[in-house]
Design a protein that fits this description.
By secondary structure, chain A is mainly α. Chain A has helices at residues 2-44, 50-54, 68-98, 102-116, 120-135, 140-165, 168-176, 181-192, 194-209, 236-244, 249-276. The N and C termini of chain B lie far apart (64 Å). Classes of the chains: A mainly alpha (285), B mainly alpha (327).
């Protein structure tokens, strides 16, 4: 009896120890987040000022300057990518949720998941072959296309998930009133799921907004303003990369500042998403 | 009788008034959405075709030797991808060794062991870590992590474990080990969140049965949950491997970018993705560009195989919840 009790205590201790180990693991997993944030703030905050948002980069040796062209360039690239990624992704997701046989859909879903796992640099190589080699010039079009293609499978999967969550009663009610199927889908189903669809789009934008690899040899980067989409264009992540691997201290400071701005932007989008999905905890995405 | 007649009249007139909904709109919308959905198929084919096409000359010229020789000399037009394949595999292996135990322990903590109030905040933090772009982690890597590793943990490892060939030689800073660690940080969130979904999909009956037999919390987790979910967890790890193999910017910034095969993890290395990132815009000759396309093809081949395996493993477990976490 006594030994049974001792054994029980020993098992309790083991359980507590396992919990402690798991807790420490969790802390180690999120530790990099805290460290990265801390260093971004410490190293970047002093260089984030009015000039950073309004000025062009200055030549080596001069102090100051900003990344205005890179910020605008990133937004232009994202806008162009959205024109490709959003319609294809959303409508494709609607097809998977509303039409199609189970067999074909599971294949398409499978392919979308496989596409999501393809390294982003591969997209850069492909678009380089498709656009840059053919038109003999790096361009904003190429960069935007690469980002747009990455967005397609991301948006497709999230759209499908949220459209499937719309109760069937909604569809039946609309169809019973004599509304045609496509109008039911557009006006009832997609409208009901619109919050979730927008959430998916925002997450995809936040994801490709920080992508550098597919832009290295498509958008290429530019130290000046460029509003001609068939020429190389600057992007914030690209500029951070170029500055980070340069040998100049002042450029390193700028890289930290750029990184702080980029991360802040991405986290703002994520917070927005959280507000959009509040009340439906973990049901979407 | 009269009543029935009037009903049938009412029916037919109603049918006349309500024109059948236009089939054209329905048909067109279905075809439109189908075309959009089929782009995923088109894209997979497009990637394969474009990479194959771009490297056709190199494929013919170097053949199988491309994968087995280790000279990378663009000037002499000699191209062997072995050091890059080696670097990719070794850095990913280091990443998995670090990330897998941490991620699975964290997933178990999040679903089984942690107090309820702590779970959701932790999940949010992990999602935030996943949102950090590769280039920013790389920036932090070169200016914070690598100097710290060089000054403290690396000399320690060398001092105590220097007799193992892995930890010999001079310590420069950027090296294979640093590359592996930064990849580990990049793949922690995805393995954790997929594992978490897998563990959540374990039926509660499993846990209840274990508790009913008097199991402690840890025993229930180990016996009833973790071993039940083994296959799914393996899928999560393979999925993480897929991401690790293709990780580009962060690795490029800390791995040292030297094409060599060395036993010591303190020596710089090079990965398939990094060589693309660094040399693509410098490719001056056609054959150089062809060789780089072939590197892209090799990378695409490896990652697609690994991803297929991961999806197959995950799909047999659960159809939706695991894939939801993938994104």
């Amino acid at each position: 009896m006594q030994s049974g009790k001792a054994n029980h205590i020993w098992r309790k201790i083991k359980s507590a120890a396992a919990s402690a180990v798991a807790f420490i693991s969790a802390v180690l997993v999120i530790a990099p987040l805290g460290l990265v944030f801390f260093h971004l703030l410490v190293n970047g905050i002093t260089s984030v000022n009015w000039d950073f948002f309004t000025k062009l980069p200055v030549p080596v040796g001069e102090i100051g300057g900003g990344m205005a062209n890179a910020i605008v360039g990133s937004l232009e690239l994202l806008a162009f990518a959205s024109m490709i990624g959003i319609p294809i992704g959303v409508l494709g997701g609607v097809y998977l949720a509303e039409y199609g046989s189970a067999r074909i859909n599971s294949i398409l879903r499978f392919l979308a998941d496989v596409l999501n796992g393809i390294p982003s640099i591969t997209w850069g190589v492909v678009v380089y072959g498709l656009i840059v080699l053919r038109f003999k010039s790096f361009s904003a079009y190429a960069g935007g296309l690469a980002l747009g293609l990455i967005m397609i499978p991301l948006i497709l999967r999230t759209t499908e998930e949220v459209v499937l969550l719309v109760p069937n009663g909604y569809r039946e009610a609309a169809l019973a009133l004599g509304v045609s199927r496509w109008k039911t889908i557009v006006h009832i189903v997609m409208k009901t799921a619109s919050k979730g669809i927008i959430t998916g789009i925002l997450l995809a934008l936040a994801r490709v907004g920080g992508e550098t690899a597919p832009l290295l040899f498509t958008a290429f980067g530019n130290r000046f303003w460029n509003h001609n989409l068939s020429e190389p264009i600057a992007a914030l992540p690209l500029q951070i990369f170029t500055y980070a691997i340069s040998p100049y201290d002042d450029w390193h400071r700028q890289a930290w500042a750029g990184a702080l701005v980029l991360v802040t932007g991405i986290f703002c989008v994520n917070v927005m998403v959280r507000i959009l999905t509040r009340g439906r905890a973990a049901s979407v995405v | 009788m009269a009543l029935a007649a009037s009903v049938s009249i009412a029916e037919s007139s109603a049918r006349e008034r309500m024109a059948p909904p236009s089939r054209f709109g329905d048909r067109a919308f279905e075809w439109l959405t189908l075309a959009m959905a089929l782009t995923v198929l088109v894209l997979v084919i497009l990637i394969g075709w474009e990479l194959w096409n771009g490297s056709s000359v190199a494929l013919k010229k170097f053949g199988f030797h491309f994968l087995t020789t280790s000279t990378w000399d663009p000037v002499a037009e000699e191209f062997g991808a072995l050091p890059f394949i080696y670097g990719t595999l070794v850095s990913s292996a280091i990443a998995l060794i670090i990330a897998v135990p941490l991620s699975i322990a964290t997933a178990a903590y999040l679903t089984e062991l942690a107090p309820l109030w702590i779970r959701q905040p932790l999940v949010s933090l992990i999602e935030m870590l996943a949102a950090i772009p590769s280039v920013i982690l790389g920036l932090w890597g070169i200016f914070v992590m690598v100097p710290w590793l060089r000054d403290y943990p690396f000399p320690f490892l060398k001092g105590y474990f220097g007799w193992i060939p892995l930890f010999t030689g001079p310590i420069y800073g950027p090296c294979m080990f640093a590359g592996g660690i930064i990849i580990a940080i990049m793949i922690l969130p995805i393995i954790t969140s997929v594992s978490r979904e897998i563990l959540r999909s374990v039926p509660n009956l499993q846990r209840e049965a274990a508790y009913a037999l008097g199991a402690t919390r840890w025993e229930a987790t180990r016996i009833a949950v973790l071993s039940y979910a083994k296959k799914g967890l393996f899928g999560a790890v393979i999925l993480g491997l897929g991401r690790a193999l293709g990780e580009t910017l962060a690795v490029t910034m800390v791995i040292g970018n030297t094409p060599q095969i060395a036993a010591s993890l303190f020596k710089p290395g090079y990965t398939l993705a990094s060589v693309l990132a660094n040399e693509f815009t410098e490719a001056t000759t056609d054959i150089y560009l062809q060789a780089l396309f072939e590197i892209g093809l090799v990378l695409f081949g490896i990652t697609i195989l690994v991803n297929l395996l991961a999806q197959l493993l995950l799909r047999t477990i659960t159809t939706t919840s695991a894939t939801r976490a993938v994104q």
